[in-house]
């Protein structure tokens, strides 16, 4: 009896040990804020919050049928972790942006995902009890709930698999089954406070302390450009990494026409009063101007490669970094004659008719070397390409030889989206003009959105420079989104149409059968 | 003019005129026109399919290309694809159609040559519904020519060519299966006009089953050939399936597109079934009623197709209207030819106008064009019912004073 009781006691002692053994995998949290002044006087800031789950691997999809190990996290966001485990997501990237990133003036962004609206892409392994598409649906619905965004609308109509342009950024565990990508974007998604609040809840210190205390919605959503991102990767030598990012482009010139001086107080209307105790590293990096007289306050902790570094550990007084220039800002036309990036893309949809149009893409290579670039175009089925009308001109001369490796997945009406990928050779110092005729679909009246006359937003195209030596290699360049005007039926009269058409059919049918079934007789007119 | 018609010069002159017209740049303007080519017959879609096929992408994996794989086989091997060459091929195809119509008329009259030949050729080659569709390079021109050839061979009693043409036509358009019954009846009897003297079916009824079997063999072989060309069965739902499920709601001159644009999702399958069956319902009554003149039954069914088929173009009612030329015996018994003509004129003028106002100008909405297609359907229905009436009424003959002809 005593022995029996003892074994129970030991068992009871071991139970919590067993359950917490997984949580012993150490978690680290780092946060960083990068601020850099842009050439046109605006200030780009990038917040990055990184949590690493040491030694953890993404869930193997083949184990989806067996119950998952329990999840105990201290810093890692549990709500996100549950979604990732439930759908066995190896890698995923979500971005919610508002505005148009101006590559020409602002250069490459710190975080590549700057396409307007919502964009979600994920790599998942196959071979589970549920298919990749089923888990993709679960993932986007889960994230839609988590971020209060209309990600549920990223349905089959918008989902594509552009494996060429969106390669995994981390590692993928070995598996006998292939990994597949699912990508969807929703350019009409509006990003606002209701998305930022759940974003902040995923951070260990919320917005109470650390650099996250600068995330003031009143100022962020007033910026010229802003966007948030969520990136989940697997780093084989470290573990699962979750990185939450927030980028914004503020305009200090807005209140004062020629003073581009900025400070935390002026951009965010807040200062960093406390450090986040959970963070193992917490720092602010400010890019220092070259060949210009400036002053920065307070004194940075250190200077690394033209960046002033402020370490927040042990910070007692509120930190309000500010920067002043000696000279007043002047708009110089010469600034913008040369682009910050060697490649720039201009994409337009031409034609005023509601049934036909032409997609016209101008890609300029300002560099001195020839660049190979992958071009990706994804369209919902409402816009269909006439691929046989594709022309490719360099400065007016037809150059069909510059397009190769075309892969094209045609759209299926009412369901699958179209994917067009090609590798383009972009000669140095020249503009390449790609043009394709398109046809606009006619939708059922139930398929139109409530504001049908507004038109449909089309996802941005993506250009990825490839090949050794290309500047910005592997960094995606998003084009602005397009708006397509589709023909609309009359929404007020489905009953009328059904009645008119059916009456006409019945009338003709009746007349013919009346003639066919009745006999002709000759009557004497007077007897009538 | 009389002399021209007599010496048979009119046919070469008309074809030469049409060829000159084909060489102008009109096809570039007309090929986008929704009234002249439907998603199932559009030249742009054909070119896209050929391009995808040549580049190793299955054209049937998407929703743009909905034409028969036989077109892919022809245009990637034998036929050229440049627009000028195509314009000439399409015009020659129309010339063959006109020739078939003239021969059909001669077979019906059992004479080698008549003074009406030139007029009948002109009725086909100068019919604006037909020649504008041909200028727009719509493949419905091929469908019309095959339909006429099938009827011509049937009228001459050539079973195999007729059934082969009918099987080819079925590959291009599923709805044309309606023409099979009158074609087989025509093979089993004669094309000579019996409208004025109705009698029970006099042909050889035993021939019908072997003819049907032969048709099935041709269809199977062509279906297998199509499958071989497109290396898979995916073409069937994309081509034949499209006429049953209507995935593409691009406006056309028919009654289906706006009806199914505005249809409630719950009732869509039901009404698709109703509209498909509605077409088939006409076959038996028309063939039974006109059993003494199967060519006339075929003519009436062409009228039904022109009015009610899922993806019609102007060329479908156009064929019906041109065929009226070979039935001059019914003219005195038409009740309202003027009204029908005016309805056609009204619809033919309003449709392009309202289409332009809706899609290009943006000053009219879809109801404008829908209304004009309703008028067009009325015009076709009026012509059809009038022809059915006249075809039956002719049996009674001219009324005498003091007597009237009515239906009981």
Automatic annotation (TrEMBL), chain A:
Transmembrane spans: 495-516
Signal peptide, first to last residue: 1-25
GO biological process: attachment of GPI anchor to protein
InterPro entries the UniProt entry points to: PIG-T
Keywords, in A-Z order: Membrane, Signal, Transmembrane, Transmembrane helix
Pfam families according to UniProt: Gpi16
GO cellular component, one term: GPI-anchor transamidase complex
Protein name: Gpi16 subunit GPI transamidase component
Originating organism: Mycena maculata
Automatic annotation (TrEMBL), chain B:
Signal sequence annotation: none
Membrane topology designation: Multi-pass membrane protein
This protein's pathway: Glycolipid biosynthesis; glycosylphosphatidylinositol-anchor biosynthesis
InterPro entries per record: PIG-U
A cellular-component GO term for this protein: GPI-anchor transamidase complex
Compartment(s): Endoplasmic reticulum membrane
Gene Ontology BP, a term: attachment of GPI anchor to protein
Keywords: Endoplasmic reticulum, GPI-anchor biosynthesis, Membrane, Transmembrane, Transmembrane helix
Protein name (database record): GPI transamidase subunit PIG-U
Organism: Mycena maculata
